[in-house]
Write a structure and sequence with these properties.
Helix content: 40-55%
Shape: extended
Number of strands: 12
Distance between the termini: 74 Å
Strand content: 15-25%
Largest sheet: 6 strands, antiparallel
Radius of gyration: 29 Å
Order of helices and strands: EEHHEEHEEEEEHEHHEHEH
Number of helices: 8
Length: 309
């Protein structure tokens, strides 16, 4: 077998295994429980009520069990989908950022009674000065931005070498990683402003005219289209183990990131660890993907906001 041989890989590598015929363990459990329930009901009441009455009672239960075992909604099994819907139905609708439970409204406040908001529980507890995300008891996570290479424009030999390097990177993993490809909006206002500032300083009038025309083109392009750019992120998470706690987990995460940078560097990829400001902006953009791009002048958690009054 060579690198150029075609190998069929399942589209969903996390698909559950089939244990009986084409049914998974979950489906067999649901069907078996439904059948056991109907069989027990027949033993208990089959001789006391008419057969047509028992059939009218058993038919909806049997159909419901079959639907729960077989039917899916957007790739989610129906039993899990109904459980998620029930959990969402009884979950609080208003969530606020609070470290403890929301107290009741005092009696002296003239306000109409209603459901209180619930604390917003996020997996990230904070972002350290080194850019690592504190996950509380779940450890720490390091987020790095990875450059890209053109795979389609390479020769077959170069493609084989790129696949081999990526395979070595996967084989060298000692813990969980996440490769995230996301699209984010592009803000051309800074590039347009730089063109307008530098146009009068160019040595030839034709160059100044070309710079102004290019700035006008970028202005029109950003006004007529939603410009996006692709960002590839590598997230490495390390749990808290031992007495060193977060310090040891952060050291392991950074060491694993450095190892991945050395291995992937062989195929021309560069890995840059995001600092505190970049990680904060990334998380804010993930919470509101449709918002305009954020600059670097927002306040970090714990910063003192002041001004001249």
């Amino acid at each position: 077998m060579t690198w150029t041989d075609a190998v069929r890989i399942p589209a969903n590598v996390e698909a559950p295994d089939k244990i009986i015929a084409s049914f998974t363990a979950r489906q067999v459990l649901i069907l078996g429980a439904t059948g056991a329930l109907l069989y027990g009901a027949y033993l208990g009441f089959g001789e006391r009520i008419p057969l047509w009455a028992f059939a009218a009672f058993a038919l909806p239960i049997g159909v419901l069990g079959i639907l729960l075992a077989i039917v899916q909604h957007d790739g989610i099994p129906l039993d899990q989908y109904l459980l998620f819907a029930l959990r969402h139905r009884h979950a609080p609708r208003q969530l606020v950022s609070a470290s403890e439970e929301i107290p009741e409204i005092p009696a002296w406040v003239n306000a109409s009674p209603g459901p209180l908001p619930a604390p917003l529980r996020l997996p990230a507890k904070g972002i350290g000065p080194d850019g690592l995300i504190d996950l509380g008891p779940d450890g720490v996570a390091a987020v790095a931005e990875v450059s890209t290479v053109s795979f389609a424009l390479r020769t077959p030999e170069e493609q084989d070498s790129l696949v081999a390097v990526f395979g070595r990177c996967l084989n060298s993993l000692s813990g969980p990683i996440q490769i995230l490809v996301r699209a984010e909006r592009v803000n051309l206002s800074e590039a347009i402003a730089d063109l307008h500032r530098s146009a009068p300083q160019l040595p030839h009038p034709a160059l100044s005219h070309a710079a102004r025309e290019h700035a006008a083109f970028l202005t029109d392009l950003s006004a007529r289209h939603d410009l996006l750019r692709r960002q590839v992120l590598l997230i490495i998470r390390e749990p808290i183990v031992g007495s060193q706690g977060r310090t040891a987990a952060a050291s392991r995460a950074l060491r694993r990131l450095d190892e991945a940078s050395r291995v992937l560097g062989a195929c021309g990829l560069t890995i840059k660890l995001l600092d505190q400001t970049a990680v904060t902006g990334l998380l804010l953009a993930c919470f509101d993907p449709t918002a305009p791009p954020l600059g670097d002048d927002f306040a970090l958690p714990g910063d003192v906001i002041g001004g001249n009054w």
